[in-house]
Amino acid sequence: MEQIGFWEVEVSPKVINVASIPQRSPFRYPGGKTWLVPKIRQWLRSLPSKPKKFIEPFAGGAITGLTIAFEKLADSVILVEKDEQVAAVWQTIINTDNGAEWLANKIINFNLTPESARLIISTQPDTVKGLAFKTIIQNRVSHGGILADGAGILKNGENRKGILSRWYPATLQKRILDISKIKNNLNFIQGDGFQIIRKYIDSTNAVFFIDPPYTASKKKAGSRLYKYHQIDHEKLFRLMSKTKGDFLMTYDDADEVRALALKYRFETRLVAMTNTRNATMMELLVGRTLNWAD
Fold first, then answer.
1. What CATH number is given for 1-82+191-294 in this structure?
2. What span, in angstroms and rounded, lies between the C-alpha atoms of 97 and 92?
C-alpha cells in the first residue's frame, strides 16, 4: 500500500519490457497498451471460465483485442472504434473481402518519401480502402502516430532517419496478413462504444476492456491525441457498474478518476509503465475486483 495524495492505493511497481510482447497492430498508437498485455492475460486467466466475448469499446490501435484473439484467451473479440480513419483500417483488414491483401500490397509497393507521404495525406479518398491506406501512411510518419488535427510530420525521427524511421513495410505487411488469418475470431464495429457496452450489459459471459481517451482529469492528456476525445466519464463508470460481466478499465492516475472509482465502489491499482521518452509513469487500473493484480 502506498500513499498517493489523499489516497492509499495498491502499487504494481514492475515495469513491463514491451520488447517482450508480440507486436500485432499495424498502428503506432498514442496511448497504446502493449505494456499492459501481461496484466490483461493475468486478469483473463483469473476468471472462472474463458470469456465468450472480449469487448474493446475504444479499440484504437487494438493491441489488447488483437492479443486476445491471437492467443485465444476468449472465444471471440469485438473491436469498436468511432474515428473514421482508424475504423477504415480495421474495416479494410477485418470486414472487407481481400481487403487485408490489398492494403498489404499497397504498403509493400509504396515508395515513401516526404513528398509522396504529403501527397497521400493531402488526398480525400472516396473509398474505405483508400482511406485505410492514407491512415497508415499518416500514422507512420506523424509525431507519435497522432492522427488528430495539428500533428506534424517527423523531421529527424529515430537515428535521424526522418519519416523512414517508423516505416517498416515488410513488417506492416506481415502484421496485416497475420490479422486477416484470424479475422473469423474478430468482429469490428465502427460506432459508439457506449452503445456496444449497453448491448452486452446483461451478458454474463462477456468481458470489457475499457481504455477511453484520458480526459477525465484536469490534464486532459487525450484531448490533443484523438479526434473524438470528449466523453462523459461519469456516465461510463455508471454504465460499467451495471454490467453483468467483468471489466477492466485503465486511466491516468488522477484524483478525479479515483473519486469516480470510490463513488461506484470499484477497486484501483497503480501499475508502472514506460512512456515514449523512457520515463517511468504510473497508470491506474480500475475494476470490480483486482485481487488478481496483487
1. 3.40.50.150
2. 8
